[in-house]
């Protein structure tokens, strides 16, 4: 790696271009934001900034709300889950609910089955895809275009409806 030249006046102009980047103005160095710093000086720009902030904060709360409800629901007793009005935090957290779910529902067995299925699917997909990619790139089989088209079509369809 070459060191930058400390005194550019001692080198020719062509060397200066190759060693140094063009100096940027402060406008080019500023970050791009949804609301520019110039528009933040105006009242409408500040209002737009706070509107975007409130919308993003609301979206975050709406997104994280069910996750919070799931974790607090796991700590509640069955009567506390169905009580009206619902509580935001359990009165007496039951940490044993996690160990009960682990033992009663045979979670290790189901987790092992899921892990075996996922690992097998990944290995099978790698073997099929790698051999198909190699054969289609190195060989020239009959119907190569149709085979590639069908592979690409299956990549475009998400797995959920299939």
From TrEMBL:
Compartments it resides in: Cell membrane
Keyword Nucleotide-binding applies: no
InterPro entries xrefs: MetI-like_sf
Topology within the bilayer: Multi-pass membrane protein
Alphabetical list of SUPFAM superfamilies matching this protein: MetI-like
Keywords assigned by UniProt, alphabetized: Cell membrane, Membrane, Transmembrane, Transmembrane helix, Transport
Chain residue ranges for the region called Disordered: 1-24
Transmembrane stretches, start-end: 48-71, 115-136
Gene3D superfamilies, sorted: MetI-like (1.10.3720.10)
Bias type Polar residues, positions: 1-12
Protein name listed in UniProt: Carbohydrate ABC transporter permease
Species this protein is from: Ktedonobacter robiniae
């Amino acid at each position: 790696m070459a060191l930058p030249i400390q005194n550019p006046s001692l080198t020719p102009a062509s060397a200066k271009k190759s060693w140094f980047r063009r100096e940027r103005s402060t406008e080019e160095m500023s970050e791009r934001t949804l609301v520019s710093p110039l528009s933040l000086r105006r009242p409408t720009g500040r209002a737009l900034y706070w509107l975007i902030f409130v919308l993003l904060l609301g979206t975050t709360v709406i997104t994280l709300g069910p996750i919070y409800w799931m974790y607090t629901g796991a700590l509640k007793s069955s009567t506390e889950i169905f009580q009206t009005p619902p509580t935001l935090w359990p009165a007496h957290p039951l940490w044993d609910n996690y160990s009960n779910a682990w033992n009663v529902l045979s979670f290790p067995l189901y987790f092992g089955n899921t892990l075996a299925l996922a690992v097998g699917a990944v290995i099978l997909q790698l073997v099929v895809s790698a051999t198909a990619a190699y054969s289609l790139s190195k060989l020239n089989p009959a119907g190569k275009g149709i085979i590639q088209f069908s592979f690409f079509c299956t990549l475009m369809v998400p797995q959920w409806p299939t």
